[in-house]
Amino acid sequence: MNAYLREDLIDTNDYDEDGTRLVGKLYFIVVEGDDGYRMQHVNAFDVIDDSLENLVNAINNKITIYGLKSLNRDYWFEIDPRYGSEAHQHIGDYHLMSRQELERQR
């Protein structure tokens, strides 16, 4: 079980001088269990600095000692499991499908 930073690209709704849409990055703290189950912190960060790395290390220390149950669920929510993991095999790819795709499979 460990905590780490995950990055996502975001649309900045801005354009450069050539008219190309600018893309930015956001970073999220993710905790992943040994079975591939993952939770993400509700806050997003736009830079990686020492304080963010210290926070990830502190979360790692906490979950190493107390486990995932030590996380306050008011600040963490479940996200997609690690592909191919035990958790992923349990739920499959249904979380990625639209309602129409699910209906077609019935």
Outline:
The protein is α+β, with helices and mostly antiparallel strands and 106 residues long.
Describe this structure in words.
This protein is an alpha+beta fold and 106 residues long. The chain has one domain (2-105). It has three helices and four strands, in the order βββαβαα. The protein has helices at 50-66, 86-91, 99-105; strands at residues 2-15, 21-32, 38-45, 76-79. It has a four-stranded antiparallel β-sheet. A hairpin with a 5-residue loop joins strand 2 and strand 3 (38-45). The longest helix has 17 residues, at 50-66. It starts with a strand and ends with a helix.
What structural class should be given to the helix and strand makeup? Answer: alpha+beta
Name the poorly predicted regions: none
What global shape is seen? flat
Round the mean pLDDT to the nearest integer and report it.
86
Estimated helix fraction: 25-40%
The major sheet is characterized as: 4 strands, antiparallel
What percent strand?
A: 35-45%
The radius of gyration computed from the alpha-carbon positions, rounded to a whole number of angstroms, is 17 Å
> Treating each run of at least 4 consecutive H or I residues as one helix, how many helices?
3
How many strands in all?
A: 4
Give the tally of structural domains: 1
Distance between the termini: 36 Å
N-to-C SSE string, H for helix and E for strand: EEEHEHH
